[in-house]
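2024-03-11 09:14:02 INFO receiving multi-entity request
2024-03-11 09:14:02 INFO entity count = two
2024-03-11 09:14:03 INFO echoing inputs for audit
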Amino acid sequence: MKSYLLLIVAFCLSLSLSLTAQTIEKVAPGVWKVTYGTPEKFKPSDFKEDPALDALAKMSGNEKPPFDLSTIKFKTTSRGCVAELTMEDSEKLYGFGLQNNTFQQRGLRKEIRVNSWSTGNVGFSHAPVPFYVSTKGYGVLVNTSRYATFYCGTMHKASESINLKEGGNSNVASSTLDLYKPLEKSSDNMIIEVPSEKGMEIFVFEGPTTKEAIQRYNLYSGGGCMVPAWGLGVKYRGKGDYNDAKAVKLAKYFRENKIPCDMYGLEPGWHSVAYSCSFVWKPSLFPNPDQFIDRMDSMGYKLNLWEHAYVFPTSPLFDPLKDKSGNFAVWKGLVPDFVDPKAREIFGDYHEKTFINKGITAFKLDECDAADYKDAAAQWSFPELSQFPSGIDGEQMHQLFGVLYQKTLLNVFNRNNKRTLLDVRSSQAFAAPYPASLYSDMYDHHEFVRMISNAGFSGLLWSPEIRETKSDADLIRRTQSGVLSAQLLFNSWYLSNPPWLQYDYEKNNRDEFLPNAKELESQIRNLLELRMSLIPYLYSAFATYHFKGIPPFRALVVDYPQDSAVYKIDDQYMMGENLMAAPFLDGASKRSIYFPSGVWYDFNTNQKYEGGKAYNIEMSLDQIPLFVKEGTILPMAKPVQYVTPTTVFEITCHLYGKTCKPTLLFEDNSYTLDYQKNQFNWISLEWNGENGKVTKTGKYKVNGYKVTAWIKH
Amino acid sequence: MKSYLLLIVAFCLSLSLSLTAQTIEKVAPGVWKVTYGTPEKFKPSDFKEDPALDALAKMSGNEKPPFDLSTIKFKTTSRGCVAELTMEDSEKLYGFGLQNNTFQQRGLRKEIRVNSWSTGNVGFSHAPVPFYVSTKGYGVLVNTSRYATFYCGTMHKASESINLKEGGNSNVASSTLDLYKPLEKSSDNMIIEVPSEKGMEIFVFEGPTTKEAIQRYNLYSGGGCMVPAWGLGVKYRGKGDYNDAKAVKLAKYFRENKIPCDMYGLEPGWHSVAYSCSFVWKPSLFPNPDQFIDRMDSMGYKLNLWEHAYVFPTSPLFDPLKDKSGNFAVWKGLVPDFVDPKAREIFGDYHEKTFINKGITAFKLDECDAADYKDAAAQWSFPELSQFPSGIDGEQMHQLFGVLYQKTLLNVFNRNNKRTLLDVRSSQAFAAPYPASLYSDMYDHHEFVRMISNAGFSGLLWSPEIRETKSDADLIRRTQSGVLSAQLLFNSWYLSNPPWLQYDYEKNNRDEFLPNAKELESQIRNLLELRMSLIPYLYSAFATYHFKGIPPFRALVVDYPQDSAVYKIDDQYMMGENLMAAPFLDGASKRSIYFPSGVWYDFNTNQKYEGGKAYNIEMSLDQIPLFVKEGTILPMAKPVQYVTPTTVFEITCHLYGKTCKPTLLFEDNSYTLDYQKNQFNWISLEWNGENGKVTKTGKYKVNGYKVTAWIKH
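2024-03-11 09:21:47 INFO inference complete, emitting structure
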């Protein structure tokens, strides 16, 4: 019997080994799918939104793949499945999701593994995405929820050495640094290994430019997310153990001091049990939640509740979910099997009934990544070997958990025709349509800025949140980076008072304020007002993200892929179509800034810079590192304290240069999803050299903007 | 056709899933093998030495397994194979090879992955071994060359939460440290996951004590290694770019200044090309290697050559190995497929003819681990997805490469009946019989000492090498730790002069000596002479390792598994049967030292300490942190400058306490393997209270010792 079985197994193996050729299928305009063998279930695409096919069809260059897809070499091994692509010498690679400490990825090994910390620079991330784009103008996504590894030109084959008779190192190294230095030259191989799988599915996105490849990836994902206008305002998260009265007091402080704030977030203390969660208000801190919600709402705050998805035994969600969860606990809580639509429904229904219907506008979805890999003792997360009733295992669930968690709650908001903006600590592939911004406990300022640049390659949003800081300058510069990001977020979950009143942790919690607290408060107010002024511009950039797939925040290389000077620039980025940000890091007052081709205006002084080179630029703390491309009409709003359903933004159009291109403003009901039913307008702002012209196109009947002035610079 | 194939595959799968029960087999006295499914080829045991069955049979408690082996639960998953064992609450776990920054392993996740750096504390190591021992008195080895992960009680099952209605955290954390703190209590599950495999083989070693479980593991591996007596002397590795004249000059320095030194090591510069290696002398530095070897030999030095196994194209080994190597290059060099006996033969024959027959006595086998995992740019090593002609893949090869490399060269020494002591940067399971000492670029003093303790759990030897240091005290204390280790090694590969003349790197290489260089030299000389005095004791401890499997260096918990006070003590350890070392770290002059039960003597002052408690102990730099158990007869030799084939050690027996147990000295030709033909003696040293007695048992005809005095303390 045994040898008979072995024979059959051998027969199966020999057959499967003979299935070596891939199938190539055009799945959307400019998007191809290459399939080899039999990829596993639980692919990222199994949970994605429908592609924005119409928008894809409108793009040019849809006819043929960016390279010959039959040249991709695949094989299965005892470890999994391997694909090999080749690269040209000149190509640079970007992407792989929310990478914190690398930017240009060629020459690096990247392991796409969700994790709460980065573990060197190997690719671990809150939101690692098995997707990269090339400066040659194409994108590649490996459709797997396994921990895939990309060897981006790091490996040389033995066969390359056969005819090598020189180039050996006859100099003797004198330090370990010298010994283990990186390759002199990266190889031309992109080798991708997917563990455990016996097949692979690769999506290839046509360019012909880098930006278009990204656009196609985002549109194939379903288009970029539409955030509510209030989501582009200011978010403040108060101390974790604050009760209702303290939260209200803090909320009043903002209003009384005319400091803009749209969103207020509660941290873990609101749960009767947290770590894991009860999803029930704690009576001692919030005896009357409905009243509290109403009170915050009456002050114009959008209330956001912290949670994670792990369900403590005393939670009302525990019994309904106990046979729809993984076999390992996290902080004694169940891990819901969000692959199962029924588990998503139970979790979502509870949130709808208990929170969303009561006026909660958003959630912070914490801890949906994984425990710090490096720390073998602090293993709070579920193991990769976990099993879930749906059949997904722990590794796959780790990779998809953030996205599935987002889907679970967004589904409820969507069916209620309510827009939201979530905070979320993990995401993955095809996430562009989800209005959710990533955040992290990592707190290096340069990394925070680099993540703004990197997030844009992979359909992600990122909040470089502001916590306590180490100096006035550090506070201001970090706040500026927040102002110049997708979501401006102060996270004071362990601070009694806002950081601008005292940025020292201990003193803050003893209510000892800085001597210059009021002065700092005023500087912060100015910055937050600037953010409020940018809302129409940013809101329209998000609409462009939705309809065209162009990321509102993106690295310079996306717009200037032919300019090799930008290949390593990870601390400057484009904001919308016409603005370039160049944050000053760690409280610095000087930095080198590179300007791509064209002429650029300093937003503060209107000083002009000729592009194609770098300048050493000094800025005082009251200046924001923002630059405007010549030919721009920049619509700036009169700042409001917070956005309401009836807010009409008063717009001043700033004109940079003698001739300006028209600018488009997007107008709709930013509280609902009615834009999906064509209830929106595009407002064209034009300048003929002497007069401004405002032209509205669309079916939406309510005015969101009022253009009041045009100013030449 | 396709659906037919799927049917057959489904049939195969259903059959393989039904094979769930394990087979249990007694493979040696006190050693059981549990097999589940079909483990892969290329298991560590495929390359192991024959077990020391006679020695195993002599041990007691061989009848039944330490626990019911049928209770081990196995399953296969899409990721690989999982085993689950249970533990008692009181059990503590140790082992997993050369762990640098963890000691007691329960409560930790351990990933057994060979690597040149540790990556947090997750288990990566130069010599990770999928083996642990429990204080309950058993050992478990997972016989895999995959990167197995051991969840040592880190995970709680969801089922444990079902009836949990309290214990939730209603306190609100106020720091991230607080949030992610380790489990309050480790679970009772040991869960082992082996990736890619569809079966698992587990060896279980009976105790009944922790020490006996380790002994059985070592004896089943083939018994502990026998090192030559000269290998227990002093090793010095000179600067990497030194030529013959400079090496000879340094060698003379030792002799002229009466500083003991047995072994001199050449670093990479001797190769005509290094990184990767030519295995050919560089004519510009070593125009006449034979003459150089003779010159060093005439001064009594054993010459050791640095190399790694990666073969540069200009090497004479390249053509013979090019179709017997992996498909990826390392530093442009071939990676020989050492699984293939023919590849081992080619590599070994070349070394025999070119080096060993010419008088080279040992090699340093560098870089056989893997590139630093954390650094995605410095990927010098071969990837896990590599393929080798024998069928082994890169992951498995990484795990076994160090052991196979050792085997390749030891085979040549063995067939020439020559003993050696290799340096090696990687090892794995079943390595006890290999005379090879591990080393590392990591340089934390506490970790270096912890690795002495940890190496003893898994049949490994470890050299806490001395490089440059930061102060007189640091130099002395590190040298003391070297004296109290398996191999005393100064690695000056980037220093022109010995570190005791100048420990500042820059100044050393400018020949600027410390003002007190001669004084430090004298202190070092004293320490090295102490090491030479300990050779007979250590040599006999190694013989005990060989014949009984008791590690010569081992953590206190091995000898005192019932004393919970030692469970966390990783900076004290036993040396041979009767000595305890307690190194002073980082130049300290005070430390707390715990004494297990009994009475202990300070080696320097003979002060007595009552065991069962800890003392704060102060030691000046001329005192060595070494303690002698009451009842010991400690044989100390008159120090020689270096060991020769005719060395006769003059022994003084030091008596500690009124009544002393007999001590055994091992005597043989320490240059050859004649002990395997019973050519050895055991010399019993006994003291009846008034007189000493020396009794020799055995067939070896040459005297290696002369007992000259007995001293009471």
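2024-03-11 09:21:48 INFO post-check: Residues 678 and 699 of chain B are 7 Å apart (CA to CA).
2024-03-11 09:21:48 INFO post-check: Chain B has four domains: 16-157+183-221, 231-533, 553-624, 633-712.
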